[in-house]
């Protein structure tokens, strides 16, 4: 298991050190750049042929509408998923840039009372820390729970095909950025138009995978972007396991790792599954050991 976790971290470091940033447009155009402009093909900040969502109204959360397949749209939860052991309750982070990160583990290497990094598919057992992949054969979506005041099954996890369409299949850009001092990935909704009072840098590429400061947004600037429908995925890092339960550790704090639901919910998982991962200048997907702890961001179908 340790080798699997280290392989993911090594891959993350490889991306951080040498990867180019690729922009994938829905018309098949691929741009390989080390300087990213906010201009889409056609010379405007909006797509030549805007994607018209089936539900054009911005949800009450203030977070925008995102296409995840042809004719299929979702809205994101207002923050990353959290679980509190002492009260056995689920909630969303108060702000999109909030994260617990290394605070998921106590000084003794045990899980803290409130956590936001989960092992694979642990919607029915958020504190599961088994080292056996046999205990993670099936995916239980975290959205099957009551979360805050929302009823069970209000939210769900995106599948790989949906994540792929969201990140690489739309003409809308996604960009690494630092929001209120926290590094992560900004996702822009369909039909996005930049607010006039927000400054966008022409070059957001940075060789260092941990440095998101090439594009920064203050707390007040982010509030404007959030109200316009933008989503932020904080880079919370990951925790993994060694040869024993006393060897749990935290790693790669500058990277973002988000779990992906299987396209076939009835499929069994052997030893690996997939995750969306990003650094300050690259987005990718990779296999991962099911026993690692990653972030969870849920969506609601529209």
Characterize the biggest β-sheet: 4 strands, mixed
Our count of helices gives 3
Overall geometry comes to globular
**Assembly of the depicted chains:** single chain
Radius of gyration, whole Å? 18 Å
Q: What is the N-to-C order of secondary-structure elements (H for helix, E for strand)?
A: HEEEEEEEHEEEHEEEEEEE
Per DSSP E runs of 2 or more residues, the count of β-strands stands at: 17
Structural class: alpha+beta
Termini, distance in Å?
38 Å
Record the SSE blueprint.
Layout: H1 2-18, E1 21-24, E2 30-33, E3 66-69, E4 72-76, E5 81-84, E6 89-92, E7 114-115, H2 160-168, E8 174-179, E9 182-187, E10 216-217, H3 219-227, E11 231-234, E12 238-240, E13 249-251, E14 256-259, E15 272-278, E16 283-289, E17 299-301
Parallel strand pairs: 8-10
Antiparallel strand pairs: 1-2, 3-4, 4-17, 5-6, 5-7, 8-9, 9-11, 12-13, 14-15, 15-16
Give a structural overview.
The protein is of the alpha+beta class and 302 residues long. The chain contains three helices and 17 strands. It has helices at residues 2-18, 160-168, 219-227, and strands at 21-24, 30-33, 66-69, 72-76, 81-84, 89-92, 114-115, 174-179, 182-187, 216-217, 231-234, 238-240, 249-251, 256-259, 272-278, 283-289, 299-301. The strands form six sheets. It has a four-stranded mixed beta sheet. The longest helix is centred in the N-terminal third of the chain and has 17 residues, at 2-18. It is globular and about 50 Å long. The relative contact order is 0.24.
